[in-house]
Write a structure and sequence with these properties.
This protein is α/β, with parallel strands linked by helices. The protein is 28% helix and 22% strand. The longest helix is centred in the middle third of the chain and has 16 residues.
């Protein structure tokens, strides 16, 4: 296992935090190595945008760099500036591209802009006229209808013999719209379009596969894969067992436990009426912390669809959310947990190894990405590096 030095931890702050997040960098690295193996002959990069999916771009970036990652994808130049300190000789691609006034950030920090529109392409050509040769990447839209040059425009650009010699992309890339649905015909349609584009840019590396695309097989891998959610333990492909190791564990401190009589109601709107005498645990995390109100056990539209509300985990037991989740507090029904095992000051897992982040997300009617990136600013974070026996 790769040697990795963990940063100084403020153990007292973590031990007393109302909401705390543990990030297992060992699991993170194992997940990235798994994605690298699945990528076959393709080199494997890493998407670390949105503060490494909410887990901390500094520590995540350094761990992946030490593990061997040399191609990183961030959303903004500012993220790239931060990452550069922890990945000194890696290629850092900025997915939202370059705009007037940001040139110095790119040049001084050796960041690679991903040109994603005609406006950016025009500006980039003017930059090259002033500054000379500098690498870029091209984002091509193959059917997603998000960012990217139109495929036919990209091919015309590739064949334009009058384009400036200083314009020399190092990567052409696109993004799958339905990669998490392996049987979706759109995957094959996008693949054929991207093959034509990449062929036009002969000799330039191509990247098409995100986490889900890696699972689609080798024809989607091209030269460079760029896994994201799978690295962080999330489910990349719908309807399949998730093979990735959980990375992030969120826990909330119990502020109070209380006995409530059958027939009484719980939380705003009296959305839950108890059918038995119950013991409740009130924890210090709510929707202001990213623990979504839509996970409430009642009183929210999602419960009318038949999807069960959120759960926590404590002392070997899964415990349901009771009533509506509020801004700073969530209530759990811990009646079925032995009383001596649940006390004020203990922690309930909101998601992690026992409540998978994707299961928590489904209860909220969303995806694991949003659960991870939506954690608020009030949590304390620590990093561990647990090695496997493999």
């Amino acid at each position: 296992m790769t040697d990795f030095s963990l940063p100084f931890e403020d153990d007292d702050a973590f031990a007393s935090a109302g909401l705390r997040l543990t990030v297992d960098l060992g699991a993170l690295v194992e997940n990235w190595l798994d994605m690298a193996r699945r990528s076959g002959r393709a080199r494997t990069g890493a998407a670390v945008k949105a503060d490494a999916y909410g887990l901390g771009i500094e520590d995540v970036g350094e761990a992946l760099y030490v593990a061997g990652a040399r191609d990183f994808f961030v959303a903004t130049a500012e993220e790239g500036v931060t990452l550069r300190l922890y990945a000194p000789d890696a290629r850092i691609f900025v997915l939202c591209g370059i705009w007037p006034g940001t040139e110095r950030l790119f040049f001084e920090n050796d960041l690679v802009p991903v040109i994603a529109s005609e406006e950016q392409l025009t500006f980039w050509m003017s930059v090259l006229a002033d500054y000379g040769d500098y690498p870029c990447a091209l984002q091509v839209d193959t059917g997603f209808n998000r960012l990217g040059l139109q495929a036919e425009d990209a091919i015309a650009l590739a064949n334009d013999v009058s384009r400036p010699a200083s314009f020399a992309p190092v990567l052409v890339m696109s993004h799958l719209a339905c990669g998490d649905e392996p049987a979706n015909a759109m995957n094959r349609q996008q693949l054929e379009v991207f093959r034509n584009v990449s062929a036009a840019f002969e000799g330039i590396e191509a990247s098409f596969a995100n986490s889900a695309g890696i699972f689609l097989g080798s024809e989607y891998h091209f030269d460079l894969t760029r896994p994201g959610i799978a690295i962080y333990g999330g489910q990349a492909v719908n309807g399949r067992v998730n093979p990735m190791r959980p990375v992030a564990t969120a826990e909330a401190r119990i502020i109070q436990t209380r006995m409530v009589k059958a027939g009484e109601t719980v939380s705003y709107g009296g959305a839950l009426q108890l059918t038995r005498d119950s013991r409740l645990a009130i924890v210090s995390a709510g929707y202001a912390d990213g623990y979504m109100r839509s996970q409430s056990s009642g009183g929210v539209p999602l419960r009318q669809t038949g999807i069960a509300g959120g759960q926590g985990f404590i002392a070997g037991h899964k415990v349901p959310v009771a009533g509506r989740i509020t801004m700073d507090l969530t209530i759990f029904d811990v009646t079925d947990v032995p009383e001596k095992l649940v006390r004020a000051g203990d922690y309930i897992e909101l998601f992690g190894k026992n409540i998978l982040v994707d299961d928590a997300a489904r209860a909220a009617g969303t995806i694991g990405y949003e659960m991870l990136t939506g954690l608020g600013l009030r949590h304390e974070r620590r990093y561990i590096f647990e090695e496997t026996d493999e």
